[in-house]
Design a protein that fits this description.
Elements: H1 2-18, E1 20-22, E2 28-38, E3 40-54, E4 61-65, E5 70-75, E6 82-83, E7 88-94, H2 96-124, H3 130-155, E8 158-160, E9 165-170, E10 177-178, E11 183-189, E12 193-199, H4 201-205, E13 212-217, E14 224-232, E15 242-248, E16 259-276, E17 281-283, E18 286-293, E19 296-301, E20 303-307, E21 311-316, E22 323-327, E23 337-340
Parallel strand pairs: 2-23
Antiparallel strand pairs: 1-2, 2-22, 3-12, 3-16, 4-11, 5-7, 5-10, 6-9, 7-8, 9-11, 12-15, 13-14, 13-16, 14-15, 16-21, 17-18, 18-19, 18-22, 20-21
Length: about 350
């Protein structure tokens, strides 16, 4: 009997070291060391981050190009400049080759008109046919059209902004010899522009036009909320993403090509019971938590709602105010005693 009594203190010491407790028969009951969190009522908004940019081209952007081969005399509005409608963006001067072409076109037009007059006189004298006159008239018309084209293009060597906006980029520098059609400056129109965001096609199918989206400009200016204007479910060949399109108000002052990010609420739970996200466990696709009551952990299968990464809505399985295991759950089993850190 004395020997049995001497063993009891040793068993108690071993139990304390192992994190368990001994029952009356001396068996050790496992006790898990855990941290607890409380289920509380609140709103949860589950969001996804999207990336996109202001659409290029179309009515929102225009390219000012050289009408003829020319030399860049000056750039009046460099990249980043705000311009009013009609403001001078760049000045060009026709190159010697362009000037020679204009002189040649003018001479050809004069000669063609003289040839037409001569053919008409010969026709009157019966020395030319109607076909000769028509041929001369066609050559004169073509020469006149070519000269008029050169005239018009040479008169447009001062490049002006067709509408108010911003100069996105310049494609030439002062002194450059540029070819006909070469881009001198690219402008974005002031006013409303359209932005396109890539989105997972599965999420796109669940969206509706008019849903709010929080847009974050890439230049660090404050975010703003606008509705989704339209949704294109067709996946891009390279990114494999569908598109959400939104109209950006003119007051935001965003230019074509500007990168953007956005936050979109994909799921929301209002006035729901929420638990710390760390409390959620998974058993073959079935989410569950351990609810602790009177020092005992009880497994509860739950139905989850929205989650913001910190807390998750629990639609079924946990009541407001109950305590759930948030740390140490891997060492817990249903019905196990627990002690808190």
């Amino acid at each position: 009997m004395k020997q049995s009594l001497s063993i009891l203190p040793l068993l108690a010491l071993l139990t304390a070291c192992s994190g368990g407790s001994a029952d009356e028969s001396g068996n050790v009951t496992p006790v898990a060391l855990v941290a607890l969190g409380k289920a509380v009522t609140g709103d949860i908004a589950q969001t996804v981050t999207l990336y996109g940019e202001i659409d290029r081209g179309g009515d929102s952007q225009i390219v000012l190009s050289a009408p003829v081969e020319a030399t860049v005399v000056s750039i009046e509005a460099p990249a980043g400049s705000a311009v009013a409608a009609g403001a001078i963006v760049a000045r060009l001067r026709a190159s010697p080759a362009s000037q020679a072409q204009f002189r040649a076109a003018s001479a050809d037009a004069t000669a063609a008109q003289q040839a037409l007059a001569r053919a008409q006189r010969l026709r009157t004298d019966g020395l030319a046919s109607d076909a000769d006159v028509e041929a001369a008239r066609s050559r004169a018309a073509a020469a006149s059209a070519l000269m008029a084209s050169f005239n018009e293009r040479s008169a447009n060597l001062i490049l002006r902004a067709p509408h108010a906006g911003f100069v996105d980029a310049t494609g030439a520098s002062v002194g450059d010899l540029v070819q006909p059609g070469a881009a001198i400056a690219t402008l974005s129109r002031s006013g409303s522009v359209r932005a396109r965001f890539g989105i997972d096609p599965a999420l796109a199918r669940g969206l509706a036009t008019g849903s709010p989206i929080e847009v974050h400009p890439g230049d660090g200016s404050p975010p703003f909320v606008v509705p989704i204007a339209s949704i294109s479910p067709v996946a891009h060949a390279q990114t494999r993403l569908a598109s959400a399109l939104v109209d950006i108000p003119a007051r935001q002052g965003l230019a074509a090509g500007q990168p953007l990010s956005a936050r979109l609420v994909t799921r929301a739970s209002r006035a729901a019971t929420t638990v710390p996200y760390a409390a959620l466990l998974d058993d073959g696709g079935q989410p569950f938590v351990y609810v602790v009551k009177d020092g005992i952990a009880h497994r509860r299968d739950v139905q989850t709602g929205a989650s913001d990464g910190k807390r998750a809505a629990v639609l079924k399985g946990v009541s407001n105010g109950e305590l759930v295991v948030v740390e140490g759950a891997t060492g817990v089993e249903d019905g196990m005693k627990v002690r808190t850190k």
